[in-house]
Amino acid sequence: MYKLKEELGKNGGCPPIDYDIYLYSSDATAALSFEYEKDFANIVVNKGDVETEWKNWLDSWAYLMDPVLKELKENIK
User: Fold this and answer.
1) Could you tell me the pTM of the whole model?
2) Which range marks the domain in which residue 39 is found?
3) CA atoms within 13 A on the CB side of 14
4) How many CA atoms lie within 13 A of 11 on its CB side?
5) What is the DSSP string of 11-36?
6) What does the alpha-carbon distance between residue 7 and residue 16 come to, in Å, rounded to a whole number?
7) Are 32 and 65 in contact (CB under 8 A)?
8) 56-62 long-range Cβ contacts below 8 angstroms, 24+ apart
9) What is the pLDDT along the chain (77 residues), one digit of tens a residue?
């Protein structure tokens, strides 16, 4: 299904899926869990500046995201 979705998205609508990253699994990725839809909706509807709210959100999750990003850089070539 994902290959089909990628194929159908080649008209410029969607970037191709990198399956090495998409399917990567580790203890760090298992620990990284948040509700994207809820969090992003809150950023958009919050009365503050969206860019500031986004940066604050990133900062609040950095302690879980940074180990995952480090692993991906080390293990995905």
Assistant:
1) 0.65
2) 2-75
3) 11
4) 3
5) GTTSPPP-HHHHT---HHHHH----H
6) 8
7) yes
8) 61/32, 61/34
9) 677 766 766 666 667 788 998 999 999 999 988 888 999 999 999 888 999 999 999 999 999 999 999 999 999 87
In angstroms, rounded to a whole number, what is the distance separating the alpha carbons of residues 66 and 61? 8
33: tokens are 């869990």
Query: What is the total count of domains within the chain?
Result: 1
Residue 7's identity, in one-letter code, is: E
Token digits for 28? 């760090």
Q: Specify the amino acid at residue 69.
A: L
> What tokens appear for 63 in the block?
């302690």
